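ERR on first pass: missing label on line 2. Operator R.T. fixed the label and resubmitted. Corrected input:
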Amino acid sequence: MPFGGQERIWHRGVAALLAVVLVLIALLAIGVGPVPIPFSEIVRSALHLPGGMGSQDAIVVWQLRVPRVVLAALIGAALATSGAVYQTVFRNPLADPYLLGTAAGAGLGATAAMVMGHSGFSGQLPLFAFCGGVLAVIATFTFAGGVHADPRSLLLAGIAVSAFATSVQTYLQQRNSDVLRPVYSWILGELTTADWNTVRWAAAYIALAIAVMLTIARRLDALMLSDEEAYSLGVTPRRLRFIAVAAATLATATAVSASGLIGFVGIIVPHLVRGVTKRATNRALLSIALAGAAFLVLADMGARTLLSPAEMPIGVLTAFIGAPFFAVVMRVRGVHR
Amino acid sequence: MIRLSHVGARLGEREILTDISLEVATGGWLCLVGPNGAGKTTLLRALLGMLPYSGSITIDGVERHGDADRNVAFVPQRPETPAGMTVHEYVALGRAKREGWGRETARGRAAVREALERLMLMGLRNQFVTHLSGGEFQRVLIARAIAQEPDLVLLDEPTSALDLHHQVAALDEIEALRSTGATIVSTMHDITLATMYADRFALLRHGRLLLDDVPRNAVRAPQFTTMFDDRVRVLTLDEGFPIVLPTRDRPMP
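pass 2 clean. output:
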């Protein structure tokens, strides 16, 4: 691939292919479920042609399945893109979007919402989870030395904040055993509550975060170098690191508050795309976003059909695939690179 | 002209540089010489503009700190090796300052190709940088600095991992940048090699400037041997070039 041109065409080709795959998987996911709805009927209804769906099927498709598929796509894109950005910023191939305490903070926020459920807060679970996740990341930055903290301090502070938030969460659960089951269910990840309202607010935050990450994607090359080299190439590394982490945290916190904790997407997808494109993850960010969306729509389709009519928590499914993959990554690539 | 006036720098509570004043002519090559911990790398970081310092560092009369527009190339002693990036992509990073991130021009592509050719890296251009030997990667770092077409080049031990042939070849290419008006400031532990390329030596010890002179005079000054605890010998070739060797003889108490 001499001097740029062919490489760009290859990247765009991969992204275009992934966009087509995403659309096909999404259409398949809309048709598949406990109530099978022929694809042809969905298309006819969408085009206002005769022979479309009945009113009940239309409700199932437009009020249940389509928002669920769209939300899965948004969350998959958010988690995969955030994972790739974290891996670049922290120069660690096993960094995931929950690294800086987002997951533990969101878990604590959700538990707090449940514990205060009798005061009417349980309906505000996503808001509490979002605030918990963001507060945990703010605490991580504060302990690590402020917005310009270096990656190693951030990692250590993230571990400490996560441990603290998890211990408080466990204490609250022990004191309020009635919230154990709903919190546990939320922690495993779920898209069952997806509706257009959730899609709207999640889309706004995730679109903003992904737009920022795509805008700075090429500059993230500089964060793979030492800070002195980055500076000599025209980047203020600490400022760029903060913007990247803030955008990735916004996407992750939104995803967590909308669907609970869905693990491993942020690791599996960037590594899969990197395996195909053979490029640094930040150089294939658009492909990673599309692949993350396709992966989670597919995983959600599995979660709601494998044990039909019952549903499997989507986090269980992604972890079932993700844990062995994680082990292979550790084995093959090593944690030191 | 780079002018340092009473420059001091700290890392936390520790004073690393104290009252450094010297000048480097545009297109000149200054080599910072001194034992480990003398403050050489810290002085390079101050010249880069990244490290806060007291006193003044001006380049053509403009204070260096906060002057982000100046095109300064930096070749570190201990670089990071980014995964998933080829030699060509890595060298092309050097164009970011001139052309913007993710942008390519014909001029930039030509500069990258020329840098790869000059450092004998065309055969490795599609290799991942993580797969290179230490010496190959050091040549890639120098190629990136050359592709940057900088005004000022800061080199921290640029040839420590290179064999003799590649040391000279790489330093020749760095020296060629002077013809474009670039000023070079380096650190080099191989002082004999440094005398062949630099036109000024600044001798540093414990963060203080001991001497600033042309290399042939600097290595023969008493401060030079004192700086290394009298455990160096300076020989002279017929052509007058000094050779600096370590000696096993312990100085007399």
